[in-house]
Amino acid sequence: MMARKRIERDWVDLLPPLRGRLTRQAPLAQVTWFRVGGPAELMFRPADRADLVRFLAAKPADVPVTVIGVGSNLLVRDGGVPGAVIRLGRAFATVAVEESRIAAGAGALDLNVAFAARDAGLAGLEFLSGIPGTIGGALRMNGGAYGREMTDVVTEGEALDGSGRLHRLSHGDFGFGYRHASVPEDWIFLGATLAGQPDSPAAVAARMVEIQQAREASQPIRTRTGGSTFANPRDPQARGAKAWQLIDAAGCRGLRLGGAQVSEQHCNFLINTGEATAADLETLGETVRRRVHAQSGVELQWEIRRIGVPLSGGRP
Questions:
Q1: Is residue 17 part of a domain?
Q2: What is the structure's pLDDT at 296?
Q3: pTM, two decimal places
Q4: Which domain holds residue 303?
Q5: pLDDT for position 32
Q6: Closest CA to 41 of 66, 17, 16, 18
Q7: What is the CA radius of gyration of the chain?
Q8: Count of domains forming the chain
Q9: DSSP state, residue 222
Q10: Quick check: 51 and 59 in contact, CB under 8 A?
């Protein structure tokens, strides 16, 4: 049970009327790909942008807000997430094509944006079909795959700050780096405009098929996993090695802890074999990091987003 009982007793009851759905102690394990983790102290699914602005403007400044998408690159700790968890629904998932650009809402699936680009004969966005998440998550982490990333295609965007004020962002305002954007953590992306280049729909579709086949051949995509666990290192000591190569060299392929396992197929993936806790998965990940550092001197950095608190007295 989480300590911030006043969220249930006080400020939630004082919120103005909202058209979206408020749920106390909302289960999160069922909405993450790992299928682990505790509840959200409060979950809010805003009806639209105005509803979200109203919520952010009314909530106390000391109540933390966490935005989650489809839970594909997310590990929710077993004690749950204090404060408010926001999930953006259909009103934030719009995808509109205008000439060579696509305006995509933060809640739009990356795959759906790639489909829209294919149908419109726009190249350069095929990589999104290899990222199992939403545009908001891709913006937050400068998501990328198969040689391209968000910084290559984003031209502008919009976000709300923690008080509900709207900010219009140029490409430079995102502060994109490797698997990172420097936009403040409490800002909520609303959407972005992405640029493509004219090409035939058939050629774009063929490249998307190649990406899907490569994913299926190399990644454990049909298991309870969270995608790539660690970012590929930029450390000179890595000498160009990718995270999976360093993990393999450290003898971690197939390593188990409780119900968690390093994938045999792709050892930069952690798997819930069926009975794992979030603590099992996070502790196994930290074990991998220690072994890689001991073997190579490289400090792997988590790519999976870890949120919430552990159970009292639990690991880690």
A1: yes
A2: 95
A3: 0.90
A4: 222-307
A5: 95
A6: 66
A7: 20
A8: 3
A9: T
A10: no
Q: What is the CATH number of the domain that holds 165?
A: 3.30.465.10
User: Does one domain contain both 193 and 101?
Assistant: yes
146 three-class SS: coil
What stretch of H or E contains 188? strand 188-195
Phi/psi class of residue 247: alpha, beta or left (left: φ > 0; alpha: ψ in -120 to 50)?
A: alpha
Q: What is the pLDDT of residue 221?
A: 84
Q: For residues 19 and 22, what is the distance between their CA atoms, to the nearest angstrom?
A: 9
CATH at residue 288: 3.90.78.10
CATH of the domain at 67: 3.30.43.10
- Which pLDDT belongs to residue 9? 52
Q: Which residue in 302, 237, 274 sits closest to 75, CA to CA?
A: 302
- What string of DSSP letters covers 23-69? EEEE--GGGSTT-----EEEEEE-SSHHHHHHHHHHS-TTS-EEEE-
Beta partners for 96?
Answer: 103
25, burial (CB in 10 Å: exposed 0-12, middle 13-18, buried 19+): middle
Answer yes or no: do 75 and 137 share one domain: no
Residue 89 near residue 105, CB atoms below 8 Å: no
> The tokens of 56 are what?
């952010």
- pLDDT < 70 stretches in the chain: 1-10, 313-316
Which are the catalytic amino acids? 179, 228, 303
Of 94, 114, 80, 77, nearest to 226 (Cα)?
77
- Token representation of residue 161: 């700050």
Give me the pLDDT at residue 8, please. Answer: 45
Which of 54, 69, 90 represents a domain boundary (last residue)? 90
